[in-house]
Every structure is written in C-alpha cells, then in structure tokens.
Write a structure and sequence with these properties.
Elongation Factor Tu (Ef-tu), domain 3, 6-stranded mixed beta sheet, RND_pump_MFP, alpha+beta, conserved putative lor/sdh protein from methanococcus maripaludis s2 fold, MdtA-like_C, OB fold (Dihydrolipoamide Acetyltransferase, E2P)
C-alpha cells in the first residue's frame, strides 16, 4: 500500500484544528448572548377612569301619530266640493269638504223670520204692560189685569229667547256644512267625494288628519329592568324619565333625534312580565310614519362611576372565567380575576376586581409572562372602534 504524502496529513490536521476553534467561538457567543438581559415586551395599555354610563335595552316599538283627527260630518247632506289634495299638509281649521248649504240657509232665514215676529210680539206685550201698570196705579184697572199683562210680557220674552236659540242652532248647522280640520297635519285619502252623501251617523270618517312633526313610540320593557333603573337613578340623583331614548330607524340606522320617555303604564302584562312605555320623538323630516315598526334603546341601568375596558382586553382562564392583565408600578403584568357587567359599545363594565387608574393591557396580553418586564404604550382605539 502506498503511503499518503506528509503534506496531506499536515493539511488535514490544520483543518481539524480550525473547525474545533470555530465551534468553540460559537459556543462562547451563545453563552454571552444568554447572559444578556431580555428586551422588554411591548404592550398597549389603558388607564381605567371612572365615567357615567347608561345601559340600554334594545326593544321593538311601534310609531303612532302625535295627534289624530277623524274628519266626520256633523250634519247630513250631499258633498258639493272637496277642498283639499290627498297627502297634503293642512292648517288647523282649514276647510276640507263643502256640503250643499241651500237647505241650511233656508232654515236660517225661517228662524230669522220667527225671531222678528216674536220680537214684535214682545214690543206689543211691553206696551200693554206699561199701560196697564199706569192705569193700575190710578186704580182704574184691576190687579188681575196687571197680572195678565205681566204674564203676557214674560211669555213674549221667553218666545224671543227661544227664537234666538233656534236661530243660533240653524246658523251653527249652516257652519257645519263647511267641514274643517280641528288640527294641523297631513291629510290622507278621502273616503267620500263630490256627490256623496255625508251623514252625521256614519261610522266611516270622511278622511283622517295626522300630526307627525313629533310622534309617539310605544315599547314594552321588563318590569324588573324598569325597577332596577328607577332604583339606580334615584341613587345617582337622576330622574329615570329624563334619560334619553335612542331610536333606530326601520333600516337599523341611528336616528338623529333622541326620544323622551313620557310615562310607563301602571299595569304589568301577566303573560310577559313587561310594562308599556310611551316615548315622544321629534320628527321634523317626517321620517317616522304612523304604524311603522322600529327599535328603541330604552335605558335599563345607570352607573355614575363605571369602570370600563375594551372587549379585546378581556382574556379567559382555562375554566372560562374572565380576567384582565394589569401592569404594576414595576412594569410587570399579572392576571386578575374580574366580574363583568353589560357590554356597551364594545366595552365591558367591570363590576369587581378592578380599581380606578389601574393600567390594563389591551393588546399583547400573551407577552405579559411572569418576570418579564413590559414596555407600555398608550392604547389607541382603531377608527372602526371609534365609529362603533
């Protein structure tokens, strides 16, 4: 067998020594790196501040007009004219229908004639009474004649009063021939047109006028929620009826006018345990129409010093209990068990386990390990969170 040259052996020996030196340097570098302190973990924190918060129940409700007037005839007759356009806005006391007034004018004239006749009879009775009274003073007429003249005068006065009352009634019936709206609002369809017979005893109105510049929204709320709200409002010094009601349109969008609770019914529905609540809502653009079903956010609870955290700040332990990661003065994070209340606009109300001015980790909770120092930055809600 041939021997390898001496130069090859020397080269192999040198390469082996270089490899061992490189490994030794890498191991030393790793040891040096492990001995350096770990960099702080960056998290976003929120300093919790107490604030007044109102919790709402979102309830279905039905819209009704602020005022509704059924237009009916008070006298019977043939409709001669219709004086409005269907769907138009009308003023109070605006004429709507004209019943043929000829019959009523004739009755007014007849009553006027009767009044003129009885007034003439009154004049004659007064003259006779004065003459009889003068003769009786001279003892020319008897007392009976004076009594008869006084009775005739009183009868004439009564006839005049009756004729005046009858004339006033006939004039009133003549005025009723022009049917007017008692309120201002929007008039709907006409149920009777020209040539139709308007009857004072009809069950169907001629038309309906509704005032909707403000409307009522009727909802039903749990009696328990109502009792809770009244108790919490009295503790905070607020009046439950003064809290605004938020309205959602039929499309689910927020309505720009808040409502005001007027009253709640005194009776509880035995089948549902709820009470009826009436809400008054401004409606200047007439966007809310009578009969429309919408949703209303009615106050359910009020907290004067509520502590709130964003929904994403809440973590859960293996059993599902809610926790928050709180940063202490030494910039170390620790988990804390809390009790959560209602979720309001993406934020939980913390009922217990948290104190005011605590720094809560909102983003980066998984980086807050035991013994790891934290680098905190203020939590900034996203544009979507702010909008929501």
């Amino acid at each position: 067998m041939r021997r390898k040259p001496r130069s090859i052996k020397i080269a192999l020996l040198i390469a082996s020594m270089g490899f061992l030196a490189a490994c030794s340097d890498e191991k030393a570098a790793q040891q040096a790196t492990s001995s350096e302190p770990a960099a702080p973990a960056r998290v976003s924190v929120l300093s919790v501040q107490p604030a007044k918060v109102v919790v709402y129940d979102e309830l279905p409700g039905r819209v009704s007009a602020y005022r509704t007037a059924e237009i009916r005839a008070q006298v019977s007759g043939i409709i001669e004219k219709k004086l409005f356009e269907e769907g138009a806005s009308i003023d109070a006391h605006a004429p709507l229908f004209q019943i043929d007034p000829a019959l009523f004018i004739a009755e007014v004239d007849a009553s006027s004639a009767v009044l003129a006749r009885v007034e003439a009879e009154l004049l004659n009775a007064r003259i006779k009474f004065e003459r009889t009274e003068l003769l009786s003073a001279k003892q020319i007429n008897s007392a009976e004649a004076l009594n008869n003249a006084a009775a005739a005068l009183a009868q004439a006065k009564a006839n005049v009063a009756e004729a005046k009352a009858n004339l006033a009634r006939r004039k009133l019936e003549l005025s009723y021939a022009t049917i007017k709206s008692p309120i201002a609002g929007i008039i709907g369809r006409s149920f009777l047109g020209e040539g139709g017979l308007a009857s004072s005893s009809a069950t169907t109105p001629l038309a309906v006028v509704q005032q909707i510049d403000q409307v009522y929204v009727d909802v039903r709320q749990s009696a328990m929620s109502k009792e809770m709200l009244e108790g919490m409002a009295s503790n905070t010094g607020d009046a439950a009826l003064d809290l605004p009601v938020k309205i959602l349109t039929i499309a689910g969008k927020a309505y720009d006018q808040p409502g005001k609770m007027l009253f709640s019914d005194i009776s509880v529905d035995t089948s549902t345990g709820s009470v009826a609540i009436r809400v008054l809502v401004p409606n200047p653009a007439q966007q809310l129409l009578p009969g429309m079903y919408i949703r209303a956010k009615v106050p359910r609870a009020i907290y004067s010093q509520a502590l709130m955290v964003p929904q994403e700040a809440v973590v859960r332990d293996p059993s599902g209990r809610p926790q928050l990661v709180v940063v202490d003065k030494d910039s170390h994070g620790s988990r804390r068990n809390v009790s959560l209340g209602a979720l309001v606009d993406g934020q939980y109300i913390v009922l217990s386990g948290l104190e005011a001015k605590d720094n809560v980790v909102v983003l980066g909770q998984d980086r807050a390990q035991d013994g790891v120092k934290l680098e905190t930055t203020p939590y900034m809600p996203s544009a979507l969170d702010v909008k929501g």
